[in-house]
Structure formats: C-alpha cells, structure tokens
Amino acid sequence: MRMLFCLVFFLCCAGPVLASDSVGTVKTMTGTTMVERQGELLGLTVGMSVYADDRLITKANSSLGLILKDDTTLTLGPESEMQVREFIFEPKENRFSMVLKMLKGSFLYMSGVIGKLAPESIKLETPDSTIAVRGTRLLIKVDI
Questions:
Q1: Could you tell me if 25 and 44 are in contact, meaning their C-beta atoms sit under 8 angstroms apart?
Q2: For the whole model, what pTM was predicted?
Q3: Which is it for strands 122-125 and 95-110: parallel, antiparallel or unpaired?
C-alpha cells in the first residue's frame, strides 16, 4: 500500500515536468549564461535542454549557441535576452510553430526544417515589431 501511495504521489507531482518536452539543446557557450525557467534563474551548461517559455540570458562578454529540434540554430551575443514563446515541431501531423521573442541584444538565426516546410509558421518578435521569416539566415540587433 505504501509503495502504491508513493507511485501515485510521484506521478501526480512529476506529471507536469514530464509532459514538457525539450525544444532544443545548448550546444556552445562562453562566459555567463542563464535561463529563467518557471520563475527560477539557473546557470546554463553545454548539453542542457531548453523548453518553451524559457528566457535565455547572456551577460557581458558571453555568448550562447542553441540547436532546436528542427535543426534551427540560434546564437545569442553578449548582453542578450530571448524567450522561447512557442515551439511545435510535429512533422507527421503537419504541425509547425516557432515564436521567439528577442528582448534585447544580438541574435543570429539560421532556419531548420520548419523554415523549409512551413516558413509562415515562424515569428521572431522584438519589443517593437514581429518579423516573418522567409529566408534562411538573419542577424537581428535589438536596442532598448
């Protein structure tokens, strides 16, 4: 009975965490990089997973390289912040969506599979505008 209670407790508590799939991975980093996830600030490491709603942060003299599940690559330059607002990559169901909010700093974006199959489903937001992606490579600088 005790074992059953522990199993039910674990499944109830761990369910929301397990349901959230990674949208990508940290591939490279230099300096101080962090992620704000569910109100908590965590240091990033190479190989760490990135999730929808994560806010990625680089400090001065830092950079961060990400690869998303569809092979999109993103590089954040020094003193940059970006939020992964939405990421859906389900090619078998023909469902695609990528919404990235660039809050400040510099960003290099190179599209992956979503950019080839459904470029209209990609939105890159800045504080003052939304960029619809039709190409494969963009360099964006956001000054606030």
A1: no
A2: 0.81
A3: parallel
Q: What DSSP assignment string belongs to the chain?
A: -HHHHHHHHHHHHHHHHHHS-EEEEEEEEES-EEEEETTEEEE--TT-EEETT-EEEE-TT-EEEEEETTS-EEEE-TT-EEEEEEEEEEGGGTEEEEEEEEEEEEEEEE--HHHHH-GGGEEEE-SS-EEE--SSEEEEEE--
CB atoms within 10 A of CB 123: 16
Angle (CA) 69 140 125, round 5°: 65
Q: Tokens 């078998």 appear where? A: 92
Phi, psi of 18 (to 5 degrees): -70, -30
pLDDT for 80-139, tens place per residue? Answer: 999 999 999 999 999 999 999 999 999 999 999 999 999 999 999 988 876 666 667 777
- Geometric angle at alpha carbon 72, from 16 and 127, rounded to 5°: 75
Rounded CA-CA distance 46/58 in Å is 14
